[in-house]
Design brief:
This protein is mostly beta strands. The chain has one helix at 4-34, and strands at 40-54, 65-76, 81-94, 99-110, 118-133, 136-148, 156-168, 175-186, 196-209, 214-225, 233-245. It has one helix and eleven strands.
Length: 246
C-alpha cells in the first residue's frame, strides 16, 4: 500500500508533467507562429546570492520561523550591460520538515537596453515543499506576486510554478545535477501587462556543497518571454549562484 508521502509525490510529478507539457506546447505554438526570425535573442549572465535560516538567533522560541535574503545582478546585451538588480527579503514559517510558507517584498531596479528604465516593486507569497526520493531531492514552489510599476496605475497579479530536482552524483561527492522549470502566468489585465502566459525558465546545471551551510551552482537557463507589442524574447543565461543556509 502506498504511503501518503508517495501518493503526494506521484500527484506532484503528474502535475509537473502536465505543467511542463503545457509550457512546451505553448513554446512550440508560439515559436511556430512568430518564427525564429521574429524572436529577439540575447546572451546574459545572472549572479545571485541567497541566505536562509532560522530566527533562533533572535529568540529560541522562533525555531519554526525562517528568514530569506536574496540579491541578484543581471547582465544583458550579450552580458555587457547591467540591466537589472534584485533585492528580495522575506519571512517564513516551517509547517514541518518538508513544507514552509513565506511572504516578503522585492525591489527590481531595471535599466533594459531596449526601453526606458523603471523600478518595480513587489509583494510575494509562496509555498515551498521538498521531498527526498530515490532519484534525489524533489521540490516545488508556488509563488504569487503583486507587482507595482511607476508607469502603471494598476496592480499586476502573477503566479509562478516551479519544479526542481537535485540529483547527487555518486562518482563526484558533493556535486549534484540540478534541473528545474518555472512557468509564469499573469492573472489579470492591467494598463501595463496582459493576462495569460508570461514566460518560462528552464534550467540545467551543477551544484557543489562545500559544507552544510554553503553551496554554489553554475548552469544554463533558457528564458522565453511572451511580448504583446514587440517580438517575443529568447534569453540564453549563464547562471551563477551562492547559497548560505543556517
Amino acid at each position: 500500500m502506498a504511503t501518503p508521502a508517495r501518493l503526494v509525490l506521484r500527484y506532484v510529478i503528474r502535475q509537473m508533467k502536465l505543467c511542463s507539457a503545457g509550457a512546451i506546447a505553448f513554446l512550440i505554438v508560439s515559436m511556430s507562429s512568430t518564427g525564429w526570425a521574429d524572436t529577439v535573442q540575447d546572451w546574459q549572465t545572472w549572479t545571485k546570492i541567497t541566505a536562509t535560516g532560522r530566527l533562533t538567533f533572535i529568540h529560541p522560541g522562533l525555531d519554526n520561523f525562517r528568514y530569506w535574503l536574496e540579491g541578484q545582478a543581471r547582465f544583458g546585451n550579450d552580458t555587457s550591460t547591467l540591466t537589472q538588480g534584485l533585492v528580495r527579503p522575506g519571512l517564513g514559517y516551517a509547517v514541518n520538515d518538508k513544507a514552509s510558507l513565506w511572504l516578503g517584498y522585492a525591489y527590481f531596479p531595471t535599466d533594459p537596453f531596449t526601453s526606458e528604465a523603471y523600478n518595480e516593486q513587489r509583494l510575494w507569497e509562496q509555498f515551498l515543499w521538498a521531498q527526498p526520493t530515490d532519484f534525489g531531492k524533489f521540490s516545488f514552489r508556488n509563488r504569487l506576486e503583486q507587482r507595482f510599476r511607476p508607469a502603471g496605475s494598476e496592480v499586476g497579479w502573477r503566479f509562478r510554478q516551479m519544479y526542481a530536482l537535485s540529483y547527487p552524483l555518486s562518482f563526484a561527492p558533493g556535486f549534484s545535477l540540478e534541473v528545474s522549470d518555472e512557468v509564469f502566468v499573469n492573472l489579470n489585465n492591467t494598463d501595463w501587462t496582459v493576462n495569460g502566459f508570461d514566460q518560462n525558465r528552464a534550467f540545467v546545471g551543477i551544484s557543489y556543497h562545500f559544507n552544510q551551510p554553503v553551496a554554489t551552482e553554475i548552469g544554463y537557463m533558457n528564458r522565453y518571454i511572451r511580448e504583446t507589442e514587440a517580438p517575443n524574447k529568447m534569453e540564453h543565461i549563464l547562471s551563477l549562484s551562492l547559497s548560505l543556509h543556517y
